[in-house]
Amino acid sequence: MRDVLRVPGGRRIDLTAYDASAVPAGPADKAAGLAATAALAPRLADLQERLYAASTAGDRRRILLVLQGMDTSGKGGTVKHVIGPFNPSGCRIRAFKAPTLEEQSHPFLWRIMQALPRPGEIGIFDRSHYEDVLIARVRELVPRSQLDRRYGQINRFEQSLAEDGVTIVKVFLHISYEAQRGRLLERLDNPAKHWKFNVGDIEERALWPAYREAYEIALERCATDEAPWYLVPADRKWYRNWAISKLLLEHLEALDPAYPPGDFDVDECRRRLLAT
Amino acid sequence: MRDVLRVPGGRRIDLTAYDASAVPAGPADKAAGLAATAALAPRLADLQERLYAASTAGDRRRILLVLQGMDTSGKGGTVKHVIGPFNPSGCRIRAFKAPTLEEQSHPFLWRIMQALPRPGEIGIFDRSHYEDVLIARVRELVPRSQLDRRYGQINRFEQSLAEDGVTIVKVFLHISYEAQRGRLLERLDNPAKHWKFNVGDIEERALWPAYREAYEIALERCATDEAPWYLVPADRKWYRNWAISKLLLEHLEALDPAYPPGDFDVDECRRRLLAT
User: Fold this and answer.
1) Is any Cβ of chain A less than 8 angstroms from the Cβ of B197?
2) Interface residue B275 vs chain A (CB under 8 A)
3) B4 near B232, Cβ under 8 Å?
4) ipTM, 2 decimals?
5) Which CATH number is correct for A2-274, 3.40.1190.10, 3.40.50.720, 3.40.50.1110, 3.40.50.300?
6) Pairing mode, strands A229-233 and A166-174
7) Is the terminal CB of chain B with fewer CB neighbours within 10 Å at N or C?
8) What is the domain class of B2-177+203-274 according to CATH?
9) Cβ pair A262:B205 closer than 8 A
10) Is A88:B91 a contact under the CB 8 Å cutoff?
11) Which GO terms label this protein's molecular function in UniProt (chains A, B) (predicted)?
């Protein structure tokens, strides 16, 4: 999946050319997709435990999954479904909202630093520092010169993380304008979902082309070897969950974390324990 | 379960009088226990979503599950199994280890404050501020006068949390001396579990009576109406998981969180959305 979904960096891509309902390299249909996703769970759980175990012996490696996408693209749903197989104690999940007053008083990467996964953990960001070049660009929240510097700041920051053992997996959840309309209508039609609906969501839709452009620029400038971007078509939730689970599995397999050997004499410990 | 497992405060209980392999008010056997636990999941998930939804409309209520118990009593396993039904985004899990240098430079409740659940969340502490009257008592880490003040400090702290909307559920996982030996032996017998084993665990067993006494005193002095202690027999993992799931369910049901009504005109929003 890494090769299939990876965004080429350094050049502008046209997001309108990507079909959000496509299922590249995916299972044949929804039923097959759900089964394939469930089948990945034991291996994901095993690798996560190994990653965590390795950290207790000094291995600093860890994973950071960054989720970005338009409203209703399924960032929250991805967290819920993709994290399912893992031990929640080893996951560090953070949803970034509008910055607090304290966060605003710091450089934009400050709050990101607070939320990073520790060695052995799997970190998941629901939104991230990319908001600072997305909504910040569309809404002109900072002067253009400051905004333009942020791409380089992000790349240098991510390179430092990679050097410290963080495997960064950045996922852009690509939904269509039509799918977003349908998902917002679903929220309106279900009173139990009204708390997720915001009148501002309708107004934001008018800015869709501006957000798309902001994403295209972020993908162009920040898809690096140390921290690649993956474009996941997300109109079909079953494909989205399968593809991201598969991406995580591939990255965990590449890390190939091992249980550390004990630093004690097993027979001696057994004897002493049996004497208690 | 709340009435069955609740520890009476204000008087000393004798932990040796509690059978750690008992299954009070529980399912008949392991198979029934696993089925009963699985059957609780949908209701737990539904109530968690309501609790979170309510917080978006200003409801400050939240839950804090505190897990304490001897080594191998299953604190980590409880987190993994009991949290399963919940959306991990709404859970704030924290395992407390030996305090860092920075934590040591602050009052003992400082690091606890950093880890509290936000409104709408379910917080889970794997160990907690109680370590500061448990290992701190057994190992005499602080002068006795300072230690004795901590019980009152804990009670006042927990009362303030309760007043701010935190439902505190403190669980003592009660295992037997023999069960601990068996679980440590299992870790020795399985190389994939060696990373969980520590030679110091054997030496700590010699302090079992001192730890038991420290727990008895903490239960006596800190079982309050605002923050009750529950004693969960934990030799049988299936019972432990069922009982704690059931405790959480009862507390969530008592909160009875409701989806907040939308503050918008549904028909008007639908019209506007369809026009986009």
Assistant:
1) yes
2) no
3) no
4) 0.93
5) 3.40.50.300
6) parallel
7) C
8) alpha beta
9) no
10) yes
11) kinase activity
Distance of alpha carbon A206 from alpha carbon A174, whole angstroms: 17
Nearest CA in chain A to B178: A276
Contact B80/A57, CB-based, under 8 Å?
Answer: no
* Rounded Cα–Cα distance for residues B166 and B162 (Å): 5
Burial (0-12, 13-18, 19+ Cβ within 10 Å), B243: buried
**pLDDT, tens digit, for every residue of B112-125?**
999 999 999 999 99
Structure tokens of B224? 């309050």
Q: How far is CA B65 from the centre of its chain?
A: 3
Phi and psi at residue B184, to the nearest 5°: -70, -40
- Chain B (83-102) residues lying within 8 Å, Cβ to Cβ, of chain A: 83, 87-89, 91, 93, 95
Pick from B180, B186, B276 the residue to mutate for testing the A interface (most A CBs within 10 Å). Answer: B276
Question: What would the two tokens of residue A53 be?
Answer: 């175990």
- CA gap B78, B91 in Å, rounded: 14
Residue B25: which pLDDT band, with cuts at 50, 70 and 90?
very high
Q: Which residue in chain B is spatially nearest to A93 when comparing CA positions? A: B89
The answer to whether the Cβ–Cβ distance between B185 and A273 falls below 8 Å is yes
CA dihedral A48, A49, A51, A55 (to 10 degrees): 140
CB contacts of A202 in chain B (<8 Å) are 269, 272-273, 276
Q: Which residues contact A10 (CB under 8 A, 6 or more apart)?
A: A220, A223
User: Which one of A126, A202, A269 has the shortest CB-CB distance to B276?
Assistant: A202
Closest CA in chain A for residue B267: A188
- How many residues does the structure list for chain B? 276
Contact A152, A97 (CB under 8 A): no
Of the candidates B126, B195, B259, which has its C-beta nearest A191's C-beta? B259
- Are the beta carbons of B273 and A202 separated by less than 8 Å? yes
pLDDT at site B111:
98
Rounded-to-integer distance, Cα B95 and Cα B8, Å: 27
**Interior/surface letters A31-64, b for 16+ CB within 10 angstroms, e for the rest:** eebeebbeebeeebeebbbbbbbbbeeebebbbb
Q: pLDDT digits over A77-92, tens only?
A: 999 999 999 999 999 9
Q: And the tokens for B153?
A: 């400090």
**Domain boundary assignment for chain A:** 2-274
Residue B170 backbone dihedrals phi, psi, to 5 degrees: -100, 125
Q: Name residue B75's amino acid.
A: K
Question: From CA A66, how far away is CA A132, in angstroms rounded?
Answer: 14
- Tokens (6 digits) for B70: 């001897």
A217 contacts chain B (CB < 8 A): no
Cβ neighbours of B87 in A, within 8 Å: 79-80
The pLDDT > 70 percentage for chain B reads 100
